[in-house]
Amino acid sequence: MPCRFAPSLRMEKAIVGIAACVLFSALSLAAQQEQTFKGEITDSMCSGPGGHEAMLKKGEAIAQCTISCVKMGAKYVLSNPGNKTVYKLDDQMKPEAFAGQNVVVIGTLAKTTGTIHVSDMIRALPPKVTQAKSVYIDCAACPRGMAAASQAALQELADWKRFHVLPDPHKADLIFLFSANPYLGDYLTRDGPYPMPVSIKITFMNVIDPGTGESLWTDYRRWGSWRVGGAAKDLIVEFRAQLEAEEGHVERLLSLKQDLNANAPRNESK
What we know:
By secondary structure, this protein is of the alpha/beta class. The protein has helices at about 10-30, 55, 60-70, 125-130, 150-160, 230-245, 250-260; strands at about 35-45, 75-80, 85-90, 100-110, 115-125, 135-140, 165, 175-180, 205-210, 215-220.
């Protein structure tokens, strides 16, 4: 008669204990998944009622007030007036560059202390961008190798399927401007291409408001003329990552950020 293995009571308890531990670890990991938090970077002194009013009356900008208060001992915080929530931030280095600005913070929240453990921080996109449905791709002044930017951008937008690409800039919600030189803010006023010489060492992308000519988002890749198409695609991927982060797709953002970091050489985002 074959022997049958009958686990002892001690072993059964051990198995149950291991299973419970694994389940608890899984639940803890799920609870610690990164999420997005929106609000304004301010300081702990001015995050309450009244905020920066006193300093604004003296002619000091919100950013200056925030930085000054931190120098006097306050801490950078994320304030969301919409739900009247103020979050502490464990990283006190990143917020300085965003003082007084609306941002999207990516991280995990320690509910017991109300502290966000910051993974990343990006400037929030204006409603003009998040609500846009159509775009116009402008690379009319793109000489030589820069011409590859238009086709690469068109292909990436076709894969994205978020925006309608229109042939008329006056009917589009946004303009995606690609160039080899920095944008001078003169989309509505300039007559013809820039007179300055073009050396295709950098590919710039600006997301422009067609009504005002204001640049709503910008970044660049220092990849040289032979990689203009890849640079244009990479810039749209980065823009997509930020836009989707604001819509709560954190996993998508983190995945795209890893891909972007792997595509060296590239500059850090502004």
